């Protein structure tokens, strides 16, 4: 085919984009490509979470939704003139600094927040604040790309358990609740992590946000709809859990569990989602042909004028964005190489009034300390026959895969039979957890972290301390100490561990001595 026959078609494709937009969009594409390339491992990890973890499956649709939202605004956007904006480079740098803090401390959520917001701020930087204002909702909706929400599981478990026990009593079924366990005539039920309803709540919040924007113009109506989008899945999850218990009373636990799996997974929450839309339908006040952007208002607004004084050369600003990304990546590489020096060998010491004993548990239990450079596990017994389990973990640095405060680390690994039952009274500075296995065995665990001169149980404080170490290249080791004792007819867990702690007092100095830091 002759070349002249192809050229007009190519020209028609190019003309679909306004001439004033072509180079800005090219620069934005280049900046995004650089960020994707430099932080490819983080994007790959996020993609794995989207695909493998059901809580985040809905995020696979978010890029498509964002593209649709931008497409709906395309006719109005074509009337605006994008301009590169120098202050936006500082916004990108701030986002990538958040990524840096997450990367050097093993805090994946911070890393994900950083790279997602950096992409958003690239739009502000390379298209300008006026265009970013016109794209405010699609940009904000991009925050749903961040895989967060698992942190809500413990709270949602308790909420679901309380709703379930209330409905169970209201339906005339005798039941007793103990933490997340509900004992009924048909058997013992657990409101497990998978039953918390977190994945549907997160998806409903995203859906509610989209519907509130697309279908409503009134802010009060939007607020009411969003409130319904949050409350309805929580209440519905409690009803679902109650339904499982109710069916089990007559049909048995096996039948109820199978029915719950099928109905919950394929039907029930689809009906809840449809009910939410149906309830809001009659109150929708946005017409189908209403534009999403008031172009005249955006063009004539005066406040962006003050910001646009800092517009600059687009290619120079694009280069600055790439330079900032490279600096942050190099800083991370240097910081992650910083680790504290540790002794080649450490041992649990002798403790007055206590002797080392063979491990003997009513039901097997072991805390997790993944990636620790040294991990010591021992059991101590006193003259009265009381026993305390000691788990001591020492880390040269904290990062992904070797982080004392990470999810699943510590006294309650997620892949065993032990479940969190309730908080337990703990000594000052420690976290206390009461655990239960199979509805029969209980134990209490106290957890401390130590870093430098600080001893406590705050995971946030631990992360901040480690971030500071690596940023200023002043490494200090991290210690995790877990004391645990079984609660039995012959042993009170809290009293037993209280006696043990008195024997090791002062505990922070004892922790340092084990690591050879005194």
From TrEMBL:
It comes from Aurantiacibacter rhizosphaerae. The keyword DNA-binding does not apply. InterPro entries: EpsH-like, Exo/Archaeosortase_dom, Exosortase, Exosortase-1, Methanolan_biosynth_EpsI. It is a multi-pass membrane protein. GO terms for molecular function: peptidase activity. It is an enzyme of class 3 (hydrolase). The chain crosses the membrane at residues 25-41, 53-71, 83-101, 113-146, 158-177, 197-216, 223-243, 263-284, 314-331. Its main location: membrane. Its EC number is 3.4.22.-. One of its GO terms (biological process) is proteolysis. Residues 318-506 form the Methanolan biosynthesis EpsI domain. It is found in: Cell membrane. Keywords: Cell membrane, Hydrolase, Membrane, Protease, Transmembrane, Transmembrane helix. One of its GO terms (cellular component) is plasma membrane. It holds the Pfam family Exosortase_EpsH. Coiled coil: none annotated. This is Exosortase A. The keyword Hydrolase applies.
């Amino acid at each position: 085919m002759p070349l002249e026959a192809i050229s007009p078609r190519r020209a028609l494709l190019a003309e679909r984009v306004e001439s004033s937009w072509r180079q800005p969009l090219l620069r934005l594409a280049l900046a995004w490509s650089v960020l994707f390339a430099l932080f490819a491992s983080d994007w790959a990890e996020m993609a794995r979470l989207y695909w493998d973890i059901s809580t985040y499956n809905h995020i696979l649709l978010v890029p498509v939704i964002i593209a649709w939202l931008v497409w709906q605004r395309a006719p109005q956007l074509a009337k605006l003139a994008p301009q590169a904006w120098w202050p936006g480079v500082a916004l990108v740098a701030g986002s990538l600094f958040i990524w840096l803090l997450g990367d050097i401390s093993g805090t994946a959520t911070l890393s994900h927040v950083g790279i997602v917001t950096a992409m958003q701020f690239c739009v502000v930087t390379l298209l300008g604040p006026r265009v970013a204002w016109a794209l405010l909702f699609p940009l904000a909706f991009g925050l749903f790309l961040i895989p967060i929400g698992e942190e809500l599981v413990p709270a949602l478990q308790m909420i679901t358990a309380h709703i379930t026990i209330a409905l169970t009593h209201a339906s005339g079924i005798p039941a007793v609740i103990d933490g997340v366990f509900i004992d009924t005539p048909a058997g013992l039920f657990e409101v497990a992590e998978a039953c918390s309803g977190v994945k549907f709540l997160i998806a409903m919040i995203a859906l509610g946000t989209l519907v509130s924007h697309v279908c409503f113009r009134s802010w009060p109506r939007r607020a009411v709809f969003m409130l319904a989008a949050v409350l309805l899945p929580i209440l519905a999850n409690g009803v679902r859990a109650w339904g499982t218990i109710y069916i089990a009373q007559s049909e048995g636990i096996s039948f109820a569990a199978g029915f719950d799996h099928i109905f919950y997974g394929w039907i029930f929450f689809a009906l809840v989602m449809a009910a939410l839309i149906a309830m809001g339908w009659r109150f929708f006040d946005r017409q189908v042909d209403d534009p999403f952007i008031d172009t005249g208002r955006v063009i004539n607004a005066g406040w962006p004028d003050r910001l646009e004084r800092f517009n600059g050369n687009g290619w120079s600003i694009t280069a600055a964005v790439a330079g900032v990304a490279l600096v942050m990546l190099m800083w991370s590489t240097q910081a992650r190489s910083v680790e504290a020096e540790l002794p080649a060998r450490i041992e649990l010491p002798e403790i007055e009034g206590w002797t080392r004993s063979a491990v003997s548990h009513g039901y097997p239990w072991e805390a997790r300390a993944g990636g620790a450079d040294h991990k010591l596990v021992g059991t101590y017994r006193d003259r009265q026959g009381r026993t305390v389990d000691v788990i001591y973990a020492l880390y040269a640095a904290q990062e992904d895969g070797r982080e004392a405060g990470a999810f699943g680390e510590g006294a309650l690994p997620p892949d065993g039979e032990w479940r969190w039952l309730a908080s337990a009274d703990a000594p000052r500075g420690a976290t206390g957890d009461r655990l239960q296995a199979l509805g029969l065995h209980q134990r209490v665990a106290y957890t401390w972290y130590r870093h430098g001169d600080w001893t406590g149980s705050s995971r946030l404080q631990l992360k901040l301390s480690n971030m500071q170490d690596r940023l200023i290249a002043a490494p200090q080791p991290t210690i995790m100490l877990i004391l645990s004792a079984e609660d039995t007819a012959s042993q009170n867990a809290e009293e037993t561990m209280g006696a043990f702690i008195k024997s090791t007092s002062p505990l922070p100095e004892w922790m340092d001595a084990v690591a050879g830091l005194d």
